[in-house]
Amino acid sequence: MTEYNPRDLADLVLKPIVTEKATLLMEQNKYVFDVALKATKPEIKAAIETLFNVKVTKVNTIRPPRKKRRIGKFIGYKALYKRAIVTLSQEDSITLFPDV
């Protein structure tokens, strides 16, 4: 197994996604994160395991096609992004909403 620098791994996970679909996935012990475009599945697994101190069993990634956006006569594109759906082992969980 390859050793990763913990400082580099922290930069791969950008933010957790909190949508209706993502909260439904949390009931199945799956969490959704925005990750860097260059991040690979083993790097994402290592990053989540070190940041949250959990055991990751599976990583699925999504990289949808760019969408066109039009402002007046100018046509542009929305920014590219990559999402990772991370499945944790049964005994682990991540607290995204700490009690206030």
TrEMBL record:
This is Large ribosomal subunit protein uL23. One of its GO terms (molecular function) is rRNA binding. It comes from Lusitaniella coriacea LEGE 07157. One of the early assembly proteins it binds 23S rRNA. One of the proteins that surrounds the polypeptide exit tunnel on the outside of the ribosome. Forms the main docking site for trigger factor binding to the ribosome. The gene is rplW. InterPro entries: Nucleotide-bd_a/b_plait_sf, Ribosomal_uL23-like, Ribosomal_uL23/eL15/eS24_sf, Ribosomal_uL23_CS. NCBIfam families: PRK05738.2-4, PRK05738.3-4. One of its GO terms (cellular component) is ribosome. Belongs to the universal ribosomal protein uL23 family. Keywords: Ribonucleoprotein, Ribosomal protein, RNA-binding, rRNA-binding.
